[in-house]
Each structure stands twice: as C-alpha cells, then as structure tokens.
Amino acid sequence: MKKYFGLLPLTLVITLIAFSSCKKDDPADDSQYMEGSMVFALPKYLIAKSPVELEVSGITLPASGITYKWNTTGFGVDSIVGQKVTVTAPAAWGDYSVIVTATHPEYNSAVITKSTTVIDPSSKSSFSGIVKTNDSIIDSRDGSVYYYKTFDKLNWFVSNLKWKGAGKPYQNESALSEVLGMLYSWSEATGGVNRTGLGNGPQGVCPQGWSLPTREDWENFGSAIKGAPLSFDDNWAGIGSKAAVNAMLNGKSMWKYSPDNMKENNSGWNAIPAGSSTNNFNYFTNINMFGFWWSASQKDSTNGEYRFIHFDNSSFPYNFANKANFGASVRCVKLAK
C-alpha cells in the first residue's frame, strides 16, 4: 500500500480555505475603543444668531489623528469639522441638539450629544408680555436700552438691570441675563453704601444719573400703585399681582400659575421671576417662582433689605439677606423732573 503524506484530507482543505476567506483585509477587525470621555461646553441657553465657540476634548487614546465632526443642524451650517469650531446659533427660537463624532481609522468611533435652548429677546414670538413705555435711556457702559415709567415722584426701570460689570447671570447662563437681568449681591448693587431719603440712593451698579431705590423710594412706589400711603415694612397686599407680568418665554409662562396671584401688571412694572442665588453665586434657585429686588437700605451691618414677589401670593413684602452671599435683581430709579 502506498502512503501519500503530501496530500491533505478534502474536508481539512475546505476548512482552511473557508478560514482564509473569512479573514478579510479590514482594519476595523483590529480596531480598538478610544480611551477617555469626550466633553464639550454648550450653554443651556443661546441668543438667536449669536456666535458660538465650541471645543471638544477628553480623548486620551489615540493621541493624534482624530477627526471631529460636528452635527449642528440649524446653526447656519449643518456640519463642520474640527476640534475647535465657531458656529452661529439658529435664527429661530427653540430646542436644538449638537452632536460630535470622533473617528480614527484604527479605532471605533465615539459620539457625544448635548442640547440647548435658543431664545430671541427681540422677538415677541419668543419673549412677550413685557409692557414697554415711550421713555427710555441707553446705558453708555454697554449700549443696553432700558425703558422707564414715572410713578409719582420717581422714574423706575421697568426691567431688571443686566449690566455685566458685576454680579452673575442665573446659573451662569449669559443668554438668560438678556431676559432676566443679572443677579447682584447687596454689596455689589449698592457699592456697600447704605442710604436713605427720596431719590438719594447710591449709584452702585446703576447707569450714571440713576440709583438703587431707598426705603423712601419703595414707599413712594408702593403708595402710587395702591393710591394710599404704604410703609416699607407693610406687607403690600395686592401690590405683587399689580406689579407682576405674565411674561412668556418660548411659548411658556415664566411665572408658575396660581389663582392667588394673577400677574395683572396693571402698574406696568413688569416683575418677572428671575430667581436668586446664594453661597456667593455657587447656588441658584427660585426661578419661575420668586422675584427679588434690592433696596439701598440695610437691616443691620450684615444684612441688606429687599422686596419680593412669590407666584402664589399677591403681596409684595420685604425681607433681608446676607449682603455678600445673596444674589437678587436690581431696578434703578431717579427723581422725575
């Protein structure tokens, strides 16, 4: 019998051929997962048509050769490539997503998605309800326009101060300051100066010629709305509803609803629930529920006085808080001619 050592069984040959055909020349078979976690900062709120700088980081392996593609539908361009890019916020208000995909020929792709809300303070379809007047000033420091209204002996801003030379925007979201104004500590708002007397408040953070309202300024305002004398220490029953405005932002009411405070705004003071901050602007709360406005007066050496409106109560009482740690809104006043 002859021996054929050079020949392989037919079944083994077929198996080897099949194995060889399955091993494709495809780098993806040997690809690895990228190491590290992609991160990028996207504000929760953006002003329509404003420039937005975006930069992604966090991948530690591979160290080079990564392509970053941004899916920015609605942002002027639908997609853009680069680790650091600049895009334009959508012109139409609403909710949008930004997606970043990292690719490399030898690694599996990585993806991260974040969302943002675009607002347009100049459009009534985005921000409405605020009653403007025929009188206004331009803040020479930043070009901001403030409308004001005369209440008895004083002119009052009918929107919150938004000067960014001090204070912080709610949740550090710069876009929100265009609607809510800025939050300031009492020490920032007043420059640390406690004043009394009608129209005699410190300039503090207000534009030139304007000042923080004193106790007497607040009393003059409240009395003008009520049509009868009011003390600063009074609860100001019913005045909160007359001062609060049922403003809308992107189709949603800024104030929470309550039948006990109908936000009539028949005074035209346009109070909105801009919230507050504590712990040196490290904690923000009370948005959509409370509005707080500083007085130039102090309760004592530690605490400054403010007035506030709650969504569920029609009054406009006063309280006090730490001068350095509590953040509240500011309205500026000046004596009417």
Description:
With 337 residues, this protein is mainly beta. The protein is 12% helix and 35% strand. It has helices at residues 10-22, 177-180, 186-190, 215-226, 239-243; strands spanning 35-40, 45-47, 51-61, 67-75, 77-81, 84-88, 94-104, 107-119, 127-128, 136-138, 145-151, 154-157, 248-249, 252-253, 274-278, 283-287, 290-298, 303-310, 318-322, 333-335. Strand 18 (303-310) and strand 19 form a beta hairpin. The N and C termini lie far apart (128 Å).
Topology:
Layout: H1 10-22, E1 35-40, E2 45-47, E3 51-61, E4 67-75, E5 77-81, E6 84-88, E7 94-104, E8 107-119, E9 127-128, E10 136-138, E11 145-151, E12 154-157, H2 177-180, H3 186-190, H4 215-226, H5 239-243, E13 248-249, E14 252-253, E15 274-278, E16 283-287, E17 290-298, E18 303-310, E19 318-322, E20 333-335
Parallel strand pairs: 2-8
Antiparallel strand pairs: 1-3, 3-6, 4-5, 4-7, 7-8, 9-13, 10-11, 11-12, 12-20, 13-14, 15-16, 17-18, 18-19
